Amino acid sequence: MLEKILILLCLSSALAEQPCKPDASDGYKVRLSIKTALGDEAYVWNENEMFLFRATLAFAMRSHLNGQEFDVSNIIVCDETPRVTFWFVVTSPLNTSGLVDKGVVEEAIRMSRNRINSAFLLTDKTLEFIGITPTLTAPVNPDTPPWLIVFGVVMGAVGAGIIVVLVSPLVLKKRKKNEETDEDEEETGVKAVENGSTREGVYNMSFSDDERLTQM
Amino acid sequence: MDREAESAEQTQVHGLQEMTERPKWDNKVQYLLTCIGFAVGLGNVWRFPYLCQVYGGGAFLIPYVIALVFEGLPLLHMELAIGQRLRMGSVGVWNSISPYMGGLGVASMAVSFLVGLFYNMILAWILWYFFHSFQSPLPWRDCPLNLNHTGYVSECEKSSAVNYFWYRETLNVTPNIETSGSLQWWLVLCLATAWCLVYICFIRGIETIGKAIYITATFPYLVLTIFLVRALTLSGATDGLIYLFTPNWETLKNPEVWLDAATQIFFSLSLAFGGLIAFSSYNAQKNNCERDALIVGCVNSFTSIYASIPIFAILGFKANENYNACRNWNILRLTNAFNIADENITLENYGDWLNYLNTTDPSEVDNLNLKTCDLQTFLDQSASGTGLAFIVFTEAVINMPGSQVWAVLFFVMLFSLGLSSMFGNLEGVLTPLLDLHMVPSWMPKEIFTGLICLSSFTVALIFTLGSGNYWLEIFNSYVGSMPLLIIAFFEIISVVYIYGINRFNDDIEWMSGRRPNFYWQATWRFISPFMLLVVFVAYVVVEAEKQPTYNAWNPDYVDFPLADVQPYPKWVYAICVLLSVLPVVSIPIVAMYKFTGFLKKYIENRHIYMTLSLV
Predict the structure, then answer these.
(1) pTM confidence score
(2) In terms of pLDDT, which residue wins out, B433 or A183?
(3) Which parts pass through the membrane (chain A) (predicted)?
(4) A17-130 architecture in CATH?
(5) Best mutation site among A46, A132, A158, A168 for testing chain B: the one with the most B CBs within 10 Å?
(6) Three-state SS across B162-195?
(7) Which of A35, A147, A165 sits opposite B343 (nearest CB)?
(8) Residue B141 in contact with residue B156, Cβ under 8 Å?
(9) pLDDT band at A215 (very low <50, low <70, confident <90, very high)
(10) Where in chain A does DSSP place strands (E)?
(11) Which of A128, B20, B206, B273 is 20 to 30 Å from A91 by CA-CA measure?
């Protein structure tokens, strides 16, 4: 009798240990790089942190599988290393000896990845679930590419500059013409007075006819 | 004597016409800045530092200075002097010196036009990068995601984000030169912007260039100084500088070093384009051109050396970053494989840890396939030309804090450097056309310059095709090299032996008040022509030995991302030869044409003489 009880105990303890082992088919390896992420503000990984991890994972399972009441005890952890890596498996609350399928666990983690990361102040890179690739952030695609905006600004400025440079001499010419017509009316009065002026270039019409006559 | 009297008359008549019309510089500073801006171009920033690095650092300065003193300065002085004396662009000047050498002017004009085409395409690329520098994060930092968002685009993953941005998103390059692809609309927009910017500065010739040059010639120096200060504070900068300037005297025994120094000085000073002749033709005749030549030549070389310091400091920083990234990757592999607490292995104790792990578990360490990280290999990754600016430098800028600011500054600096050189190219085309009175009198100058820019833009659309980058390389190698050497050689022979060195000395004495001293006499008469001939022959020999191949970017290539080295197809090679020959073919053609005209006249005269004497 005693022997049977002993064998049963051994078996049950063996069964209890079996679900979580390295390279378990339904388990995942987790790797944390706390010092890399937080530097001086890094916290020490201890039992409490491990408890938080198991609780967070239970929360993730609950959120994904609505209705099933996962508890901390459903998350079994083993093979911890100083690197801070460990393996975990998730047992179903409905059947404590059965493990939740790998795919289901993956989906649950993907859904709540952000929450799990923030619970530990880590990122996708520093809290790694080996085998679950983080979903790459879709690039932000604005409607108008920003380079077209800069292009538009530069082209607009240059275009305006070209128009200004081309049009300004025409405007100046017009202004000069208007001023000149005003000046001409003034000058005809002045010319009659300034006969012996020092302006050499003035072509004095009154003398040219005489010259032609004398030459002939 | 008749010919001399004729040409003297011609110059006098031209002089009379021009004294009423020819534009001139507002002041001496404008003229000097324009010449300096023309000489100082993109090559000073991205070709000289590369040559320094490849040819043994500080030791390269020796052939460089020798080439400057015996080849660069004499040719520079000569071009400035003849432009100033004869007061015409390249075509008019060479026609005046000797009608047989009129082809030289046409050749200079053709080369200026062809170089202006592809040079502005480079400015268009710089503008593209400038437009993209106003984003956070910079678009060349990350690879884009593939269609179903599961990973990165494979072409980008295999090469790098910077390479992908340059070859795919900017150029959209085809795998080889036969595949032309289509016009890339974004490049057409950038090219149009570049030509508009050039047009607005060039619109009234030197009147507007002289205003624009105050900014475009001085701004690069400001940016280089800012970069210098910033670069020297980066980690790894000293590694880059030591690497650059450590002289390796062995390289001086290699004749290619001397050839490259001579060609570098020659192309760097922008000789034989006709642009310098055009600029000095707008000067007052009584001007000390000897001092101008010395200033321009020395400032150009000083700029090359000054620019290489921040460039190499930044390249050293980049090599250091890559080296640390390599070592950190190794550390992570070891940490993860042996489950050691993170951050226990650091860059400092990495060596000790590696030894310890090797002794305890060598097989495991082997299985990890750790990379060999060597700072020298990263420093050796040199690049010149567009590779330096658009791949290496952009990668370095990503790692600098405040990347957008540095990227914007860098590309604006490159743009100003290129813009001031473009002025010289276009003046080399405009001034001869104006002097030949090929402009209809009803057409204002603004419309004529606009036509030049429009036609250049239209032809340059070739470079916006998918294969445009390959065509640009062809233009760069075949137009911007050999024809210039030929033109320069004939230039100096014409001035010294056809115009007459004594007459030239008299002219310079009249202009600057001093007769050129023994150094100028010796270099003009013998040393420079001889050096040019040697450089030309050596260049032809070296080029003939090389197989005409090009580096293609082919994502389907077996060894991608290494360059797929392809030979040029026959028709492309024919175009290359045509590009080298066409500009210079005008020299013998014009000479032959004038000679046949002379022969005809001579035979006619003889005929008349004989008939008269018979009578």
Answers:
(1) 0.84
(2) B433
(3) 147-172
(4) 2-Layer Sandwich (3.30)
(5) A158
(6) HHHHHHHHHCCCCCCCCCCCCCCHHHHHHHHHHH
(7) A35
(8) no
(9) very low
(10) 28-32, 75-78, 85-90, 127-130
(11) A128
